Amino acid sequence: MKSRLAIPGNKSVPAIMVILLLVAGLAASRADEATAAFLENLDRSELAIATAAGEIHKFEVWIVRNPAERARGLMFVEELEPDGGMLFVYPRPQMVGMWMKNTLIPLDMLFVEADGNIVHIAENTVPHSLETVSAKMPVSAVLELRGGRVAELKIAPGDKLRHAYFSPLRRRSGGS
Fold first, then answer.
1. Helix/strand/coil for 53
2. How far apart are CA 146 and CA 108, in angstroms?
3. Which of 6, 29, 69, 149 lies deepest, with the highest CB count within 10 Å?
4. Predicted TM-score of the model (pTM)
5. Which of 3, 4, 176, 1 is nearest to 91 (CA)?
6. Element (H, E) at 45
7. Pairing relationship of beta strands 97-98 and 133-134 according to DSSP bridges
8. Helix and strand totals (H; E) in the chain
9. Are 134 and 95 in contact, with CB atoms under 8 Å apart?
């Protein structure tokens, strides 16, 4: 005899289904907690994008500097504020490939040279995609924004990121 649980409306559900739903809920709750803890431990900083049209758009971004932080990125994040984002910084210009594994929301990816110049933009990248997204040239940073923001704000290659990471002093010292 199969075990069933009664639910309102005179319907019954196999007990295994209820257990699976509870386990899934618990796992999701732990993933949410892990994501929140990861983000809490990252530095946050203001960043601005100066467009060719003379507009300045300000964002509050998490900064990721090391391989473990860059590998995690915005995975499992369910929502990103319109003025939020994540800046992936690298110690020197290099070929960078990004993907959307375990990323739940579409993102705009801005690939940036050491002086803050945006050289490539990938708009509305597909959640969960394993396709590599890159600039096909060495970059010093990648800025991820909520999908659609680049189009909304008319951000384009040639626009500039303003942040301490892109300062001439930092570039001369080779720091990150």
1. coil
2. 6
3. 149
4. 0.80
5. 176
6. strand 43-50
7. antiparallel
8. 4, 11
9. yes
Closest Cα to residue 37, out of 80, 70, 76?
76
Tokens of 137: 């040239």
CA distance 39 to 21: 27
Tokens coding 76: 């499992």
Rounded Cα distance, 41 and 29, in Å: 19
- Token pair listed for 139: 């970059």
Q: What would the two tokens of residue 26 be?
A: 């618990």
CA dihedral of 146, 152, 157, 163, whole degrees rounded to 10: -60
Segment 118-142 mean pLDDT:
97
Mean pLDDT of the chain: 85
* pLDDT (tens digit per residue) in 46-93: 999 999 999 999 999 999 999 999 999 999 999 999 999 999 999 999
User: 88, 73 in Cβ contact below 8 A?
Assistant: yes
Q: Which amino acid is at 148?
A: G
CA distance 41 to 64: 10
Three-class DSSP category at 47: strand
Can you tell me the distance from the alpha carbon of 87 to that of 139, in angstroms, rounded to the nearest whole number?
12
Tens-digit pLDDT profile for residues 132-166: 999 999 999 999 999 999 999 999 999 999 999 99
